[in-house]
């Protein structure tokens, strides 16, 4: 293989790897990842157990999921797993 072919092969491989990296970054987190992150936040804030938490899809615009933990802790999350500020969200919402 000549030096030009090796250079082209290297550039194509680097470009493919960069494209794959960008593509994977564009995927939003899964529901499990979102629930786990909210549960970790709940444990850090309240000292409760991770098993107190459950998530469900939300019917509110701009909210993908609501994670509730214990009797009175809840957080609404957007499609990227970020907390959504807005109307008070609580258990049973």
Characterization of the model:
The mean pLDDT is 86. The chain is of the alpha+beta class and 93 residues long. The longest helix is centred in the N-terminal third of the chain and has 23 residues, at 3-25. 42% of the residues lie in helices and 16% in strands. The protein has two helices and three strands; from the N terminus they run H-H-E-E-E. It has a domain at 31-77. The protein has a three-stranded antiparallel β-sheet, covered by helices on one side. The protein has helices at 3-25, 31-46; strands spanning 53-57, 65-69, 73-77.
Q: What's this model, at a glance?
A:
The chain is α+β, with helices and mostly antiparallel strands and 93 residues long.
Throw out a few tags for this protein:
3 strands; alpha+beta; single chain; 93 residues; 2 helices; 42% helix; elongated
Describe the protein's topology:
Layout: H1 3-25, H2 31-46, E1 53-57, E2 65-69, E3 73-77
Antiparallel strand pairs: 1-2, 2-3
How much helicity do the residues have? 40-55%
Query: What is the succession of H and E elements?
Result: HHEEE
Largest sheet: 3 strands, antiparallel
Helix segment tally: 2
Mean pLDDT: 86
Strand proportion? 15-25%
Structural class: alpha+beta
Sequence stretches where pLDDT stays below 50 over 5 or more residues: none
| Spatial order of the strands forming the largest sheet | 1-2-3
C-alpha end-to-end distance:
65 Å
Assembly state of the chains shown = single chain
Question: How many E-type strands?
Answer: 3
Radius of gyration: 21 Å
Q: What general form does the structure show?
A: elongated
